[in-house]
Amino acid sequence: MTKWLRSGRRRDICFLLAADGELRGQQLKSRLESHYDDRLEPKSFYGSLSALVDAGIVEKRTEGLHDVYTLTDGGERRVRDHYDWVRDCLEDGD
Fold it and tell me: Where is the Transcription regulator PadR N-terminal domain (predicted)?
């Protein structure tokens, strides 16, 4: 696993993108806030997104006034690898 997926927030962002294909930044933030049942500081949240973009895991494009985010092929592979690892850990515990 790359160091960029060690952060729970970055990992959760990637899982949301894997599920939905692409999301606007505010949609991602709102979904995480709902999941965490807590407000996220915009600077911290967008810093996490920028780190994922800089690492080549997430791609950003501008669509009108909004930034839209999607996983790169490499990001998709990392999410799938992590999912397989978690599943294997849970199955081994049964």
Answer: 18-80
CATH architecture observed for domain 3-92: Orthogonal Bundle (1.10)
The verdict on pTM exceeding 0.85 is: yes
Structural contact between residues 27 and 74, judged by C-beta atoms closer than 8 angstroms: no
Residues in a beta bridge with 60: 69
Is 63 in a helix, a strand, or coil?
A: strand
Segment 29-70, tens digit of pLDDT: 999 999 999 999 999 999 999 999 999 999 999 999 999 999
d(CA 45, CA 28): 9
> Rounded to whole angstroms, how far apart are CA atoms 16 and 71?
10
